[in-house]
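Here is the promised in-class demo. Please do not try to memorize the tokens; focus on the logic of going from shape to residues.
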């Protein structure tokens, strides 16, 4: 069982208040004397830090320890999904907590300590945080484990070259990347005749919520065990890896996947969030008005930083007891708290007052009758037809060489409608019945207007 994290949390707060000029000014402007914060209640009253009230108000060096940017040895850049990209300085010591999360996945779950492993980093390289950050953490583990790293980045042709050429020399191959991109890699390999079953493939994901249908689909196509061989991380440019899926969290999530009533009771929504575990000694989470707040040390220390991700925290005992009360024995696992993450609410599209989220639409595209000829990428829009009636519009990317037919358009529209009616009570009750069927348009792979190649995909407009 995790020990009480508060003494370390309080020490981090006091050290940040004493050594980070911007945070000291931030507290002064809110009339707070750091010396008065001595207990959990006082900590919970500290003002939330956001990009607007902190990062955009104070210069970058002022947000670092000692007001000195040169104390950091690496600067990463956020993806800019909410606006202007943000710089995040780091030092090598800051990656220790994130490396522990990679260790929990690779060693405890994939057995890397006993198996020669090729780690293929498929996150984009360059200043963006995912690729170099993952390489840095893996390098730390490779010094003590039979782990070899190659980093082709998001160059699909290079990935499909190195896996067959190098994979046969290892017991297993682990691909690290964003879910839609890894799916594209797997599918492209199959079209090229690549037999993924030869390489004992594992997947480590970040950046997006996946469905359990997606996990099952990858199990079939990459010849892997969907429960054991696919692990999601919860990472941000702000503070690295915050939590990770464990076999326990995946078992619980798969139990809830087809039980929307139980999911709503637990999460407050029929939507199925990513469910992970975290170490509160490294990353301390709180829930404020249904959104996540965390505290963590880094090149830019963050105290009660508001992520704007919808989600919450659940103590280990509470979730275990919830499962048992619903007739499910979750089994053994690390006795760490859980964090669940829906993503940001502005990623929803509102139709007749009902919020439609990409996660639900994804499930409709992952049905067996459809998944073979779509890539999994789509764009949601609230759309007005010629009569100015509001409809849900779903533009879907076809797989390479897949044809656009009226029958396929109908199948997608009906599948998405059925999942929305099943899993989204707002859509079922707010949207008039005659508007339940979305307007669907199928577009070719790489369509420049909706699916430009090499650009981070956005699921809503």
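The designed amino acids, position by position:
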């Amino acid at each position: 069982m995790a020990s009480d994290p508060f003494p370390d949390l309080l020490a981090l707060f006091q050290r940040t208040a004493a050594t980070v000029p911007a945070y000291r000014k931030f507290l002064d402007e809110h009339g707070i004397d750091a010396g008065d914060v001595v207990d959990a209640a006082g900590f919970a009253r500290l003002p939330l830090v956001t990009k607007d009230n902190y990062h955009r108000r104070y210069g970058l060096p002022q947000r670092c320890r000692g007001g000195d940017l040169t104390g950091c040895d690496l600067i990463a850049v956020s993806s800019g999904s909410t606006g202007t990209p943000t710089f995040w300085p780091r030092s090598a010591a800051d990656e220790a907590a994130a490396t522990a999360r990679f260790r929990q996945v690779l060693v405890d779950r994939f057995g890397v300590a006993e198996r020669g492993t090729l780690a293929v980093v498929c996150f984009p390289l360059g200043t963006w945080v995912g690729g170099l950050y993952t390489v840095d953490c893996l390098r730390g583990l490779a010094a003590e484990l039979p782990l070899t790293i190659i980093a082709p980045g998001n160059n699909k042709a290079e990935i499909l070259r190195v896996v067959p050429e190098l994979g046969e020399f290892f017991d297993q191959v682990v691909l690290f990347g964003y879910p839609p991109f890894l799916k594209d890699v797997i599918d492209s390999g199959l079209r090229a005749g690549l037999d993924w079953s030869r390489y004992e493939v594992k997947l480590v994901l970040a950046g997006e919520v996946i469905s359990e249908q997606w996990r099952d689909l990858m199990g079939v196509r990459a010849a892997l065990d969907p429960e054991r061989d696919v692990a999601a991380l919860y990472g941000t440019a702000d503070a690295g890896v915050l939590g990770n899926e464990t076999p326990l969290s995946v078992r619980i999530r798969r139990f809830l996947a087809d039980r929307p009533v139980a999911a709503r009771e637990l999460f407050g929504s029929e939507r199925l969030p990513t469910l992970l575990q975290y170490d509160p000694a490294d990353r301390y989470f709180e829930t404020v008005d249904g959104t996540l707040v965390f505290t963590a040390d880094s090149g830019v220390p963050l105290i009660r930083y508001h992520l704007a991700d919808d989600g919450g925290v659940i103590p280990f005992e509470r979730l275990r007891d919830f499962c048992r009360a619903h007739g499910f024995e979750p089994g053994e696992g690390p006795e760490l708290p859980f964090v669940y993450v829906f993503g940001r609410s502005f990623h929803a599209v509102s139709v007749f007052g009902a919020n439609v989220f990409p996660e639900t639409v994804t499930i409709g595209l992952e049905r067996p009758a459809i998944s073979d000829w779509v890539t999994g990428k789509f764009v949601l829009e609230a759309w007005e037809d010629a009569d100015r009636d509001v409809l849900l519009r779903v533009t879907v990317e076809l797989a390479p060489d897949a044809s656009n037919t009226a029958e396929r358009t109908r199948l997608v529209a009906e599948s998405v409608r059925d999942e929305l009616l099943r899993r989204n009570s707002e859509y079922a009750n707010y949207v008039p019945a005659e508007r339940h069927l979305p307007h669907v348009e199928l577009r070719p792979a790489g369509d420049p207007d909706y699916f430009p190649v090499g650009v981070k995909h956005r699921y809503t407009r």
